[in-house]
Design a protein that fits this description.
By secondary structure, the protein is α/β, with parallel strands linked by helices. It has 12 helices and 8 strands.
């Protein structure tokens, strides 16, 4: 079994164009990958998509909560239109180039950083920063993810996948995993990620502790 993302399945596994999206991405991915003998179980509520973030203080002081607000803010404050982003995001159609095109704006300056360094630089060397929506450091750095009000970013919903032949042989897997998947909300995943990325705990320990606390294992 392997946890995957709908966006990864659509682009990286099935080879589709990031900006050419079906109305129901999960349905399209699960149907197409079935031809490869892979079953995609029901998706979890969490999504780990690209996003742009600012400090919570900045968002409150400037009333910036959406990407459309960002466009207006940059027009009025061009010197502050600085974004920190990693190289991959800067060169992807579903990254910065596509984002600027979708919203009809351009950031004044781009600071290219290693992804892990971006979180501490938002509010320091840049006003805006590339993040992912369930990244634990969003909590530890008191950042606010801005709403993608034009739905530009590709969906990355978490889904448990496995070979169809395995599911056929052990159909109880789907029943066992359904409540676990259902409990994995954005808030839960972000908190668990924070325990690993910020507190330095081991992923297996964090997972086991959560499974026990939710009554899935004893």
């Amino acid at each position: 079994m392997y946890w995957d993302y709908t966006g990864t399945g659509w682009v990286n596994i099935l080879g589709n164009i990031p900006t050419d999206l079906p109305e129901d991405l999960y349905d399209a991915v699960s149907t197409a990958d079935a031809e490869n003998g892979i079953a995609w179980l029901q998706p979890a509520p969490f999504e780990n998509a690209y996003a742009i973030a600012v400090t919570s203080e900045f968002a409150e002081e400037n009333d910036v909560t959406t990407m459309s607000d960002v466009v207006e803010y940059i027009e009025q404050n061009p010197d502050d239109g600085v974004i920190c982003a990693a190289s991959e995001f800067l060169n992807r159609d579903d990254g910065l180039p596509g984002l600027e095109k979708a919203y009809g704006t351009e950031f004044t300056k781009v600071n290219e950083l290693d992804f892990s360094l971006i979180f501490t630089q938002i509010g320091e060397s840049c006003t805006f920063g590339e993040v992912t929506t369930t990244e634990g450091r969003v909590l530890s750095q008191d950042l606010q993810i801005l709403e993608d009000d034009k739905d530009f970013f590709l969906e990355y919903r978490g889904v448990l996948t496995l070979r169809q032949e395995t599911l056929d042989e052990y159909p109880a897997i789907e029943e066992i995993m359904a409540p676990i998947s259902e409990a994995l909300t954005n808030e839960v995943i972000t908190e668990l990620n924070s325990k690993v990325d910020v507190e330095g705990q081991q992923p297996q320990d964090v997972a086991e502790e959560w499974m026990e606390s939710e009554g899935f294992v004893s």
